[in-house]
């Protein structure tokens, strides 16, 4: 047995819009057609059904009883179709990859490269989350984390090691004590009140040991909670700071900071970490992109 044919769908759509808006003109605007096209579609639908759907009331429209019945059914059907289509579109678009970064890495290294990332990996949408302090081994709320850390890594992580860390003292050309530092002797730093940060308390002692200095002989000046603020203070000429090379590469290239003794390797590693259970292929693509960016950095 053949099912009864549906009414013409374009005509039904024109009717639904006109009935909902109470106007042929407003329906025409919504559907981007002419007033005459709406009128013709409704006439076609009325002929197909053999019923009048609108009664003309002066210059306005009034639904007939048949029109009210059809509006209720058509309105519900179009609403369901609209909702289903929206849900399908949401499901087709991959969710953003939530990437956690220490605030200094986010502000000084990641954000300046987002345009290039978008060009190189257009299929990857990131949601960036600034993280302060250590990362919870479970990485709650994150798909991955870009960080500077040291082995051994948490057992619950899959780790993409990207590059070794290099650190060194940096100072502004405007710093009043620059002349004595430019003589090139690391021991000159023993006379400085060094800028330091609570987030990297071992940075200065490690550097001192690698350059044959007694860490106990170091003098500390102004301290900061986070590396980002430490580096802003150095750029402002407040004193000598110590920083990972990649986080100050733009300042060095622009002449805002100088590195009188260059940079030395540490036990630290740049790494992209994710929960071990993660299977998102975008993490591997991002790791390869980050590895190339870090290799190209001065």
From TrEMBL:
GO MF, one annotated term: sequence-specific DNA binding
Xref: PROSITE patterns: HTH_LYSR
Annotated ranges, domain HTH lysR-type: 7-64
Name the UniProt record assigns to this protein: DNA-binding transcriptional regulator, LysR family
The keyword Transcription belongs to this UniProt entry's keyword annotation: yes
PANTHER family: HTH-TYPE TRANSCRIPTIONAL REGULATOR, HTH-TYPE TRANSCRIPTIONAL REGULATOR TRPI
Family: Belongs to the LysR transcriptional regulatory family.
GO biological process: DNA-templated transcription
One Pfam match: LysR_substrate
InterPro entries: LysR-type_TF_proteobact-type, LysR_HTH_N, LysR_subst-bd, WH-like_DNA-bd_sf, WH_DNA-bd_sf
Keyword annotations from UniProtKB, A to Z: DNA-binding, Transcription, Transcription regulation
């Amino acid at each position: 047995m053949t099912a009864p044919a549906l009414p013409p769908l374009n005509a039904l759509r024109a009717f639904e819009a006109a009935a909902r808006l109470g106007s042929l003109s407003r329906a025409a605007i919504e559907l981007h057609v002419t007033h005459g096209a709406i009128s013709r579609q409704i006439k076609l639908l009325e002929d197909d059904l053999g019923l009048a759907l609108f009664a003309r009331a002066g210059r306005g429209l009034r639904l007939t009883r048949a029109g009210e019945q059809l509006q209720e059914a058509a309105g519900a059907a179009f609403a369901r179709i609209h909702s289903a289509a929206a849900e399908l579109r949401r499901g087709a678009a991959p969710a953003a990859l939530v990437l956690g970064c220490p605030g200094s890495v986010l502000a000084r290294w990641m954000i300046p490269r987002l345009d290039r990332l978008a060009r190189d990996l257009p299929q990857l949408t990131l949601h960036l989350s600034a993280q302060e302090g250590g990362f919870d081994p479970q990485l709650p709320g994150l798909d991955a984390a870009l960080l500077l850390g040291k082995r051994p890594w948490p057992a619950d992580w899959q780790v993409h090691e990207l590059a070794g860390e290099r650190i060194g003292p940096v100072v502004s050309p405007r710093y009043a004590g620059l002349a004595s530092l430019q003589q090139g002797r690391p021991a000159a730093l023993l006379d400085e009140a060094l800028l330091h940060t609570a987030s990297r308390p071992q940075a200065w002692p490690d550097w001192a040991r690698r350059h044959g200095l007694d860490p106990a002989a170091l003098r500390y000046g102004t301290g900061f909670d986070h590396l980002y603020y430490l580096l802003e203070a150095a750029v402002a000429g407040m004193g000598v700071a110590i920083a990972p090379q990649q986080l100050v590469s733009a300042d060095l290239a622009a002449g805002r900071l100088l590195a009188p003794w260059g940079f030395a390797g540490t036990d630290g590693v740049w790494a992209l970490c994710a929960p071990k259970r993660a299977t998102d292929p975008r993490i591997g693509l991002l790791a390869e992109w980050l590895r190339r960016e870090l290799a190209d950095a001065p």
